[in-house]
Amino acid sequence: TLETYTFQQFLNRDDTGIILINQYIEEMVRHALDTHQCSIPAVLEIPSKGHPYDAAKDSILRRANGMFTAEDLC
């Protein structure tokens, strides 16, 4: 799709360090985001006024789930 192609173009740029994307758009490119394993550019989901945020769909939270224990956060 055009969304996936555009997202891939941002992932491949040398001058991009962080990509801010809302969850609604992220759903359109999820398969491309799921294959992105590099730390740069970092892809961060941000809330959208027009669409409710669902923490269960947040790719960053899904990846971080289980990386920390309760003791790590104290």
From TrEMBL:
Query: Transmembrane segments in this chain: where?
Result: none
Q: Does the keyword Transport apply?
A: yes
Organism domain of life: Eukaryota
Q: Which UniProt keywords apply?
A: Hydrogen ion transport, Ion transport, Transport
Q: Name one GO molecular function term.
A: proton-transporting ATPase activity, rotational mechanism
Gene Ontology cellular component list? proton-transporting V-type ATPase, V1 domain
Q: Which InterPro entries match?
A: ATPase_V1-cplx_f_g_su, ATPase_V1-cplx_fsu_euk, ATPase_V1_fsu_sf
Q: Which family does it belong to?
A: Belongs to the V-ATPase F subunit family.
Q: What is this protein called?
A: V-ATPase 14 kDa subunit
